Amino acid sequence: MFPAKVTKPTFKCYLPPAQTDVKNTVEKPLKKLEAKLLSGEIVVNEVNFVRKCISPENNQEGLWGKLICTNFKVSFIPQDTSPKQKSTLSHLLLGEHDIPLTCLEQVVTVNDTKGKKKVLGSNQKLKFNPTELILYCKDLRVIRFCFEEAGPESARKVCLAIAHYSHPADLQLLFGFEYQGRRYHESKEERVNGSTPRGLQTPIFDRSSDWDREIKRTNASEWRVCSINQSYAFSSSLPEHIVVPSSLTDQDLMQYASSFTDHRIPMWCWSHSNGSALVRMASLTDPLQQKKTEQKIFAAITKSHPQRNEPFRSDLDKSLPSILDIQSAFVKLRQICILDPFEESEERWLSTIENSRWLEYVRVFLKHSAEMVYHLEGGNSSVILQEEEDRDLNCVVSALMQLMLDPRYRSLIGFQSLVQKEWVMAGHRFLDRCNHLKKNDKEESPLFLLFLDCVWQMMNQYPAAFEFTETYLTVLSDSMWIPLFSTFLFSSSKQRAQHLMDFAKHKAIPQGEDQVVYFPPVWEWSQQFSTKDQTLFNNPMYVGKGAACVQNGEVKTFKRKQKAYSSTLRGTPTNLRNGVKGGEESLTRRSSLANELKSELTPVKDLSPSERFFKDWFSRPADLQGLLIPLLMPSHMAFWKLFFLRWVPEACISKGGPVTTYHKLSQLVDEIEILQSQLRQYKGTSPGNTPLTSSGGNPTDQRRMYFQASSPDDPSTPPECLTSSFPFTPTGNLSRRTVQGTPISKFLNGARIWLSTETLANDTV
C-alpha cells in the first residue's frame, strides 16, 4: 500500500466556512461574464471579482461578478443569477443590474483602510485604491460595490471611467446619438423608399396639422395656427407652430413680441366648450410698452370669447414656489426616503416627510390649478398663465388644468399628447432641469416629477378616471434618465432641431427624413418593453368612452350619464386600494370636504362664487368623463410610495400593497373580455356589434391585462413576485438593515400624512 498523500494547505484552509463558500463562487469558472451590448455600445473598462452589496451589515452577503463601464451604462454581470433576483419588469435595452450613465447623480469612492472618501467628477485623479464604489442614482437607487477581491488598479480605473463617462462634455456625446444612428441604418430594409410614415398614435405637435386637429377637437373657432416662428427665426424657445387669436395678424405679433421674454407671446393651450380659453405667456420685459402691449393682447383674447368676457391673469412667479424651493424639497425628501435610516417612531418619520415640504408643494400646485379651473368653468373667463420665461411653472399648471377639465387627457394617448404639447414643445428645459450634462446644479429641479406626483394624487382619488397606472407614471419618470429618446434630452424645439440636423449629416441620414423616424420619442414604448410588459400600463378600473359592456347579448359602447355614477367611483377608500379593508374610512371623502368647507366658511361670511362653485361640485356625484377636481385639504395628500420607496427593502411588503387589488381586478377584467370575445364568436358578426378594442386600438387577439384570468380547474394564487414594490424589486439595492420590517407599518397600510393642527385650522380649499 502507498502511504496517504499529504495535502498541502491552501489559502482556503485559513478562511472561515462562510467565506470559503464565497471564494468558491468567485473562483469557479462557471461561465464567461460578458455584457449584452447595444448597437454602437463599447466596453470602456471592467474589473472582475466584484461584490455587489445587498446588506451593509453582513460583509459577505451579496452577488459576485464583473463590473463593466461602457459608453452607455454601468453594468454588473453576476456569476450566479438566482431566479428570485429577476425583476418582473424586463427592460429590452437595460439589464436588471444596469444603470444608464445619465442616471448617475454621484460617484463616490471609499477606502476603508485609509478612511478616505471622494466624490468623483470628470477628469479627476484618484490618489488611493478604492475598496468600495457607491453609486447614487437619479431614480433613487443606491448601489454599492466592494473590491476586496478585485485588482486594486483595475478597480481604480473602472471607477475613474464611470465618473468620466457620466459627465459628458457635450450633448452629442450622449450614447443616444450613436445608438439611434446605427439603428436607423441597420433597419433600412424595414423602410420603403428610404422613409417610413409615422406610426405613432401620439401627436408630436411639430406640424401645423397636429394643432389644427386640436383646435377642431376643442371647437376653438376664434383661434388660428400661426407659423411666424418658422425655422425659429422669431423665438429660440417657442415651437415653429403656435396657436394665437384669429384677430391678431402676424405683423401684430411681430410688433408685440419684443416686449416679451424671448419673444414668447401669448400661446393658446386649450378651449372650453363655453368659449373660454387657456393661454400661457412669458413676462413683459419692456416697462414703457408694458401697459399698451397688455391692453392690445388682452383685447384680442377678449374678442376670441363668445361673450367678450375679460380674461383672468395669474402670475405664477408670485403665487407658487420657485424651482429652487422645489429642488430643495426634493433633496430633503430623497434624504429621508433613501439615505437616512427609518426612525423608530413612525410619527417622527412622517413629520420629517411633512417638513420636507414636498407634499405641501404638490398640494399648492393642485390647489392653484383648481382655482384657475374655476375661472374657466365657473367664471366663464379665459385664463392667462404668466411666468417670467413661460417654461417651468406654466408647464405644470397648464397641464394639470387640462387634466382636470378634459377627459381626453386622462387616456393613455391623450396624456402623452398633453406632455408633448405642454412640456416638450412648449420648451421646458429638460436638458437643464434634468442636468444631463452635470454642468450646473443650480439649474436642476424636478418639476416634471412634481407634475407626475400631482397626477398620481388625482389617480389615487379617482382610480377609475384614468386609463393608465402608477407603474406607467413611474416608468415615464425613469425614462428621463435613458438618453436614447428625443423627448427628455433637449431644452427647446430649436435645440432639438439643430442637434438632430447635425446628427443626420454626421450619420449620413437623407435630408428631409422625419426626425421621429431616426431619433424617436419615448412614446414608442415597444423599444423599451415587450407587449406583455406594456399591459402593466393599463388600468383595469378605467371607465372611459371606449369601454365596452354587454347588454342583451350584444357588445355595446359603455356610456353613463352623470346621475348613474355611484358614490364608490368618486374615490375608492384608501384602505381598499391598499388591499386591506378597514373601518376608518367608511364614508366618501368628498362629503367630508363639503363639511369642512361648511364649518370653516359659513360662520365667517357668505360663500364667495368660487367657494360656492367648489361646494356645489363636491356635493354632486363625480362624472368621470367630465370635470374632475381633486380633494385639496392637507389630509388628502398621500405619499407616492411606489415611486419613493420601491428600492427600500424595509418598506417592501411581500404579497401586499395596492398590487394585490390590481392583481384581482386585472384577472376579473381579463375574464370579462374573454367572455365577451366568446359571445361575439357565438353570435357572429352583425352590423350592430361594436368590436372590442384594446387601449392601443389593436384588436383583442392580444390580452389587455398583465394578470390573466385563471381557469376554474386552476384557482388563482398570488404570484411570488407580488410585493408593494411591484413591478420593481429592491433586491440588489443598498439596504440599511438586514431585518425586514420597521415600525412604519401603519403608514404602509394607508395612514395619511397630517400636517400640523395650526396648518389645518388655517387651510381652505
From TrEMBL:
Domain Myotubularin phosphatase: 205-644
Biased composition (Polar residues): 682-700
Gene Ontology annotations of biological process type: phosphatidylinositol dephosphorylation
CC terms in the record's Gene Ontology section: cytoplasm; membrane
Domain of life: Eukaryota
Region listing for Disordered, in residue ranges: 682-727
Cross-referenced Gene3D superfamilies: Pleckstrin-homology domain (PH domain)/Phosphotyrosine-binding domain (PTB) (2.30.29.30)
Similarity field: Belongs to the protein-tyrosine phosphatase family. Non-receptor class myotubularin subfamily.
PANTHER family: MYOTUBULARIN-RELATED, MYOTUBULARIN-RELATED PROTEIN 10
Listed name of the protein: Myotubularin related protein 10
Organism expressing this protein natively: Pundamilia nyererei
Gene from which the chain derives: mtmr10
